Each structure stands twice: as C-alpha cells, then as structure tokens.
Amino acid sequence: MNNAKQERQANVFYKRLLELSNASGETVDWDHTIALAKKLMGSQVKPIMVDYSYRFTGVESTALALRAVLAMEPKNEQRVEAIKRWLMMQRGKEGWDNTKTTAEVFLVLLKDDLLNRTSKDTNFSLDALNKDSVLAQLKFDPKSRYAVESKVKLPAELKENTITLKKDGPGKLYYTLLQTYFKRMKPGESTEADALPQGLKVTRKFFRLQSVKETSTGVIRFRTVPITGGQIKAGETVLMKVYIETPVHVPYIIVESP
Fold it and tell me: Which of 134, 136, 127 is nearest to 159 (CA)?
C-alpha cells in the first residue's frame, strides 16, 4: 500500500503489525505465541486454539513482517536488527523449519542487504577463542559477502563452557550455534524439550511377540505382551509402538528413532 501511495492505510496496518509483535530484550518477532494470539483475538484464547501448520510458521510470519518493516522503515536499524537477530536464533542445521520458510527468510535477508549495504561495511577478521586457545581465525571482506557460510567445529571437551568471538574491523557478523547430542534414556525417564506444537507428547512402549496357534484353524498368530522391567533376551522378537498425542490438528508428523 505504501508503494501505491496509500500511505494512510499503510500506516494504520503497519501500526497494528507492530502492536502484535513479541518484543523480548534485544529481539522482536511475530511467532505464533499465546501472547500474540490474545492481542489478535482477545483474552479468551486457549493453547489449543493456536493452530500449528507447516504451511505458515512463526518464522515465516516474522520474515514477512520484516519485509513490511523494510518497506515502511528501511533505515530503522534497531528494529531491523532486532528482527534479524531473532531469525538467526531460529535457524537449524540446513535452514529454517522447512523449505518454504527458508525461502521467505532468505529473500527478506537479501532484500535488507540490497537496501542497506555499502561498499565498505564488510571488512573484518574474526577469532574464535576458548580461554587461551584459538579455535579458528576467519577473514570477511566484500568478496565473501555472498560466499558459503564459514563453519567452526568445536572440540567435544572445552577448557571452559564459553566461546569468545573477537571481531576486528567494520561490518556485521551473524552467527548461530548448533549442538547435537544423543542421550541414553532409562526406563521411565523423560527429558524436557520444546515441542512444536506446544503440548505434543511422544511415548514409546515395547512388547514381546508370542506366537499363538488357533485350535480351530491351525493358523499361527502373534499376540503382544508388554515388556516390564526393561529386560529382554538375545534372539527375542520385540515390537515397538510409538504413541503420539497432539493438542491440535496437524497435517502430518515425522518420527525418527535413532
């Protein structure tokens, strides 16, 4: 609307967009939270009413909102950087949530770069330090602006659980940290983790398969017997059942078992 000279309407919608945002410390986002839903639909919103869909994620909503901010306030560096900071915090190993969301984030970050870049604002060196040890030394200049991301693999054991990034020179640095680990779970043990959607529960149960011959037909069938105590013997056939409880309707769920 702003481009079509309908500035009054654009300002009204833009003001409402900012009112709906989640502002926390140094970040701004439009994630699909209960707080945002209450601003949009009133105080009667319940968690189950905040629908989850892979089609429209909170990250994608934030990327689209950033596009509006760039259209209305392209030079508001504080707000733009606060939104970008949140987007970078949401990045996974290969991108954001899914390919559609990743595309929206990539496009808006590229738009911001084309609007606000200068020829001399990327020229700095970076040292990744762990106490007195130098883990990596990197160099960034205008030629590396659209180059492949630089990765630093951290050792399994660190002298301290703190990594210091020492930057020297002009330019903006964006970084993320990805930690991958496997935890051996004991019977009955659970671990706290963020679920999407909120309230999603996944449980596993194990059963022995015992063959039973029907006397009338002679057909051999299998029946499941719950395994108690977590003990099995070598050579036993074991059936694992995965139970998924979700508070809202979801189009599909992918389950991975290491």
Answer: 134
